[in-house]
Write a structure and sequence with these properties.
Strand content: 15-25%
Distance between the termini: 33 Å
Shape: globular
GO cellular component, one term: cytoplasm
GO molecular function: ATP binding; dihydrofolate synthase activity; metal ion binding; tetrahydrofolylpolyglutamate synthase activity
Number of helices: 18
Number of strands: 17
Protein name: Folylpolyglutamate synthase
Organism: Dipteronia sinensis
Radius of gyration: 23 Å
Family: Belongs to the folylpolyglutamate synthase family.
Structural class: alpha/beta
Largest sheet: 7 strands, mixed
């Protein structure tokens, strides 16, 4: 497949890979990545939120997501809701938990419902360029406007201030923003709200939805992320996420799950008298038939045939569905959303096959297999470069990204720019990429996490993990601790990389923009007449840093 000519540039700061070489490399223009500041209308809100405890920025305490004495205090969230008039009781909701796929499934499902004509509230996290992305309301799917969000905050601020006093200042950033979202959805009288859990499920601030308000729970996947916060094992993570299952309300399982993990989820559903729909059972058939270009970006043509089992005798057949969200994992998310739509239909909600198809086909998300435009690439100082952004940050999502790139562009040369948060499994992430096809260059860099530095992983530590992974896998690399690498820099020319083309160049560089420029130069020299892709990945925060530079 021909690589689309849309790429996005990012801005970084000056650094020192090597003095004269670096100056020659990055030139005098477009050397710096800027940060994107929120709209002026949100100044009061952002100052208020910044004064609160923010676990996205500081990290989550051990055991905080478990249903135990160490877990977050849901009573605090319920008391806040009571003071706001219990807005959660004024609309119906679908609650989504899972290690990966929550945001994509929420997007697919929201668009299906909008296609059917419903007014939909959607609450997800984290955001990429503006906090407004976390809330959308109505039939458009657009983020809440800065003006509307500011008005909402000022309308309920006196309630928040009172609650903060009663709780001795312990209400968190996430709790306040979740309360605002629920208040907005009640205010706008939405038909239905799609709510993504922030961490785990049982003790997440979103888990105040009662069975009378819940249409269905969805658990997308169970993986090894936030291990310490969720009990330290895959089993404890499954138990924490199963906390969103409510009495008598359907549970939709994404998956596929390990057998003993699915057993934990089904046991919890059984104890709650909740019927289960599995989007990975034998009656569900989904296949990727081929790839093509649609509106200048790759899409996959899929068949989705659903024969839902005993509890829900429902079916639908959607042939030649064109998904802009590429990869087998995104097809699974689409199937999970479609199964949930059938649950809605079974409960009497109007839901046509045409709306399911339309919703799936019209879904795309920033930072998920996103190709930047050629104009964006030029703005980043990387004209003519194909840039792929993906917020993969776990072993599973790295594997999915590697498989998606291999499926979509099997012949393209690749260079990576990676930044990760400190609480991720860096070694497992590296192994997945190094186990795939050969990489021309890997640059480990840094990006702020939720606007702060507490959870940043240093570029040098990331490099050490990638070197360790390369040794385990017997990958021949040329890294920046080797004399040959220093000689390459002293030549003040990327041409010298030609002599080492059989080796992957690996280096640490604090500055994102410099990393992208350097990786791109190596990629272009080595690719010559072949296609090449510069992949930026490792977290949604590095994606945010890149996209923020385009909003300056």
């Amino acid at each position: 497949m021909r690589i689309p000519r849309h790429v996005t540039p990012y801005t970084t700061s000056y650094s020192s890979i090597s003095g004269g070489f670096l100056k020659k490399l990055i030139g005098s223009k477009n050397c710096f990545f800027s940060t994107y500041s929120e709209e002026p209308e949100l100044k009061d809100l952002m100052e208020y939120l910044d004064s609160l405890k923010n676990h996205e920025k500081s990290g989550v305490p051990k055991g905080a997501g478990t249903d135990s004495e160490d877990g977050f205090d849901l009573g605090r969230m319920r008391r806040l809701m009571d003071q706001l008039g219990n807005p959660i009781s004024k609309f119906k909701a679908i609650h989504i938990a899972g290690t990966k796929g929550k945001g994509s499934t929420a997007a697919f499902l929201s668009n299906i419902l909008r296609a059917e004509g419903y007014s939909v509230g959607c609450y997800t996290s984290p955001h990429i360029t503006t906090i407004r992305e976390r809330m959308s309301v109505g039939r458009s799917g657009q983020p809440i406007s800065a003006k509307a969000l500011s008005c909402l905050f000022h309308r309920i601020r006196h309630v928040l201030d009172k609650a903060m006093q009663l709780e001795n200042g312990c209400i968190t950033h996430f709790e306040v923003f979740t309360a605002m979202a629920f208040t907005l959805f009640a205010q706008e009288n939405v038909d239905i709200a799609i709510i993504e859990a922030g961490l785990g499920g049982a003790r997440d601030a979103t888990n105040i939805i009662c069975s009378s308000e819940l249409i269905a729970s969805i658990i997308t996947t169970i993986g090894e992320e936030h291990m310490a916060a969720l009990g330290g094992s895959l089993e404890s993570i499954a138990v924490a996420k199963s906390g969103i299952i409510k009495h008598g309300r359907p549970l939709v399982l994404g998956g596929p799950f390990l057998p003993h993990i699915e057993h934990i989820l089904r046991d919890k559903a059984l104890s709650m008298c909740s019927p289960v729909v599995s989007s990975s059972n034998f009656g569900i058939k989904s296949t990727i038939k081929g790839l093509s270009m649609l509106n200048g970006r790759p899409c996959q043509s899929c068949d989705i045939i659903l024969e839902v089992g005993r509890d829900f005798p429902m079916s639908t057949e959607l042939l030649d569905v064109k998904l802009c969200m590429t990869g087998r994992h995104q097809l699974q998310n689409a199937v999970t959303a479609a199964c949930t739509a059938l649950c809605l239909r079974d409960q009497g909600w109007r839901m046509s096959d045409e709306s399911i198809r339309s919703g799936l086909e019209n879904t795309c998300l920033v930072g998920r297999s996103q190709f930047l435009t050629s104009k964006d690439a030029e703005a980043l100082g990387l004209p003519g470069t194909t840039i792929l952004l993906d917020g993969a940050h776990t072993k599973e999502s790295a594997k999915a990204l590697v498989e998606t790139i291999q499926m979509t562009f099997p012949e393209a040369r690749l260079a990576l720019v990676v930044a990760m948060a400190s609480d991720k499994d860096h070694l497992a992430f590296a192994r997945e990429f190094l186990s795939g096809r050969k990489l021309e260059a890997i640059f480990l860099t840094e990006a702020e996490v939720a606007g702060g530095k507490t959870r940043i992983t240093s570029a040098s530590l990331l490099r050490d993990h990638w070197i360790q992974a390369s040794k385990e896998l017997d990958i021949n690399i040329l890294h920046d601790g080797m004399s040959e690498y220093q000689e390459l820099l002293e030549d003040q020319s990327i041409n010298s990389t030609m002599a080492s083309e059989h080796r992957t160049v690996l280096a640490a560089e604090d500055l994102l923009a410099v990393s992208m420029k350097f990786a791109n130069q190596i990629l272009k020299r080595r690719a010559r007449n072949q296609s090449g892709i510069l992949v930026v990945t490792g977290s949604l925060h590095i994606i945010s840093s890149v996209l923020a530079s385009l909003h300056k």
